[in-house]
Amino acid sequence: MSFSTKFRRNVKPLIIMNSIFTTGLVEYFVDDKISKIGTTYACFSIVLYFSLIHLFSLPTTTFKENQPFITILTYQIYVYIDYSFHVVTIIFGLLRRKKVRSFTSQLETCIQTMDQLNIPMNLSTCFWQQYYPVLSFIFIIISMISSDYLWLKLLKFSYLYIFFFFYLERYPFMVLLVVDITFVYWMRQIKFGQLNELLKGMLTTTIHSPQHKRVLCMRNRMSDSPSSGIHRTDKSNEDLIKIRKAKEIHLELIKCARNINDAYGLHILFSITTAFILIITTAYDFYCHFLIKYYYPRLFLYITNLYWISYLGFKIIFVSHACTETVTEIRDFTLQVIQNPLSFTTCGLFDLDYTLIRGVIGTVITYFVILIQVGNVSMQTFVENSTFTTNDL
């Protein structure tokens, strides 16, 4: 089996997951026929989604009536963002297909060159590592469905209506999550860690054997062994070749990382921005229902809101951590960082690192307080206007 075939086989689970939920049939190693099928499938998915939106009114509109303006506004923001998830993600997938094919080919070439330098690639391990995000994805979907199903059954909606609710309001989150996982997976496939291990293995100085002691040992060996100079010359030439190859691979991996960032930059910008907005609106919704204890059954509502805040917050941390880890591995190659620094951004607007997490937390708290002050929600207002209380259960 050729290296190219082995590489493509090992990323097949990721491609299958993208093909089912987004645009994997268009982006990856496909011929023109499969690409046309993928484009048709993506267009059909968009048409079907908006047709169902037009035919069915979502069950959550029941709770929108007779609510304060801020509550209605936050709900409308959530709905419009939700509707845009599915369509925007598919459009971004169609736009980035050339860039994805470019960086996968580039990454494949780099890994093949590293394999020739006897750097362990462990492609079989990479194959099984894909199942961790797949299992995490399945767990998130199950928990998402469970948290919503409880309160939907309380409202006595039919199973068909619940199914369409999940498709229209939750399926877009699944599509968005698949692309987020794909971005992080490709970032971790850039083998800077293995390349740095090769260079560390070539070092002759350690904490216990610093440079000045190493020089004295070299002089002693030169006087003791006449053939040591020949062996040392061969060894140094071999190391020099490896260093040159490592430098070339390092530069190519940096280019590959930039190409991945360019390919998924629009998606990550959209994903993090919407997650930030939804954290604020969900936190405000949680505050309102915590203040007004008769609006919904409290336990189910609290669980649902806390779940969504945790999920959206974890997604931002997940993406930021993956980018930070990749940049940290690059910094081990100090000279290359000075000449060719790398940072991951969302279309140049803000950096994807731990500062993003701190910024999101601070901004969420700020806007959350602003919404509380502007909303001026009182318990009496909700009790008088509410059309669904615990007495209706």
Automatic annotation (TrEMBL):
Protein family according to the UniProt entry: Belongs to the insect chemoreceptor superfamily. Gustatory receptor (GR) family.
GO cellular component, one term: plasma membrane
Statement: the UniProt record of this protein carries the keyword Membrane: yes
Protein name: Gustatory receptor
Family matches, as InterPro entries: 7TM_chemorcpt
Any GO BP: signal transduction
Membrane topology type: Multi-pass membrane protein
General function of this protein: Gustatory receptor which mediates acceptance or avoidance behavior, depending on its substrates.
The keyword Lipid metabolism is annotated on this UniProt entry: no
Chief location bin: membrane
Cell location: Cell membrane
TM spans (from-to): 37-57, 77-95, 131-152, 158-186, 264-287, 299-318
